[in-house]
Amino acid sequence: MFSRVWKWAGQYRQTNKNLGIDWQQIPMSIRNLFDDTKHWIELRHDSPDEISVRFHHRLVAIHPFSNGNGRHARLMTDLLLENILDGKRFTWGSGRELSKSGKTRGAYIAALREADTGNYKPLLEFARS
Q1: Full-model pTM
Q2: What is the CATH number of the domain that holds 49?
Q3: Could you give the CA distance from residue 57 to residue 71 in angstroms, rounded to a whole number?
Q4: Are residues 12 and 64 in contact, defined by beta-carbon separation less than 8 angstroms?
Q5: Which residue range(s) make up the domain with 120?
Q6: Could you tell me which residues come within 8 angstroms of residue 28 by beta carbon, excluding any fewer than 6 positions away?
Q7: What is the pLDDT of residues 23-74, one digit of tens each?
Q8: Which of 56, 76, 103, 122 sits most deeply, having the most CB atoms within 10 A of its CB?
Q9: How many domains does the chain have?
């Protein structure tokens, strides 16, 4: 995660990209995500894993940074699981490199796209693989 930190690390992007929401909506969308996640946890309607993959998917979809969004979202999701939901962190494709093109990254992207349609099962299966 921190092998090559950019000078702008931790600052929301200030331009639109081909991925993610309009850059001006990032702060409010992050706030809404955290509020929604708190509500999901309070309801306890879904399992910790289901709450976590929904959180992960939304954070990736917001795409708050210029780079490193997947790594950031996976780290935040694992922190949510371990520190708030008392779960075990995900393995994310058995720890294979996801920042480089390949079969594992392709499966991750396909699972995220399926989650775009409301089907979180492939993302959950990938996260636990």
Answers
A1: 0.91
A2: 1.10.3290.10
A3: 12
A4: yes
A5: 23-127
A6: none
A7: 999 999 999 999 999 999 999 899 999 999 999 999 999 999 988 899 999 9
A8: 56
A9: 1
